[in-house]
Specification:
With 317 residues, this protein is mostly beta strands. The chain has strands spanning 3-6, 70-77, 86-92, 95-102, 116-122, 129-136, 145-154, 160-163, 167-169, 179-183, 185-186, 189-190, 194-202, 213-220, 223-224, 228-229, 244-251, 257-265, 273-281, 288-297, 299-301, 304-306, 308-316. The termini are far apart. Residues 69-183, 194-311 form the PLAT domain.
Length: 317
Amino acid sequence: MASFTILISVGRENPVGVSVPPSQEESRVQGSKDHKEPAAEPEASELFHSASAKEIRHSPSTEALLAEDEWKVLVLTGSTGTQASVTLCVYGDAGVTGPVRLSKDSPGQLFRPRQEDEFQVEVRNVGEIYKIRIGHHGPRGRPAWSLQRVTMQHMKSKKILDFATNVWLSQIQAGGDLVCELPVIKEGQPIFPVRYHVDVYTGQLRQAETEADVSLCLYGQRGDSGLRLLHKSNMPVKFQRGQIDRFEVEAVSLGKLQKVLLRCEARDESQYWYCEKVVVREPGTESESVFTCERWIPFMSQGIIYSEIELYHQGED
């Protein structure tokens, strides 16, 4: 078992979004849609969007971590390993630490089949830990990882936190996601993640469709889901004019939803997208949260082009 020390800075995960008044204008994107180019591949690290993240590999000169903040993290890989980078966020009732990249100088030695890897991380000012988010930034050639178990142990008190795992992180298997949220198992019983149903409405305006990658982050009273690529739709072709695409976003319960962040990775105006609204439903309830958009993404405001926007809750039916 290999052991590594990682220092990370602390801050709340907060993808930058800009709220602006709705707009029905479409003239600025007409014409350019006639010459479409393939959508750019999103940077994998953006799925764990945070300005506070950094990575420090283990070295003999690394300062000792404070005992009160030092945790051991054990990651057990199942039958299929990954050569991609693995990233971890730790959520508590007072804040979030991360994302932190679990790596070393020779990444090929990590996350091999049926291997348990050990890391030491510093987790500050998050209060009582209730969930983690872990994922890998899989290359197209080997996008699958079997994650068997994650355990955290406080180095001073020896308190152990177990997380319900045994999941596939793959865009071609299971739920099609490279990221998962895992709750702390309390008294032997995990609080299972919620699978939110997310309906994304593309508008009826001419050339409203897009081939660009679209990502979404849900925010609620108990944190956020992290930025998730909307990869697996119920429709054969995503984000077509006048179409409703349904996605599933799995996360530890966020409580009452407050807002949604949408990001469209358009390379040029031919890939701009007109989103009408986003409707989120939590299984087992009859309520739905409606987030009205009614504008093109990306959009320009005060001479600056923004590729993401925050949408606020419009009430429940």
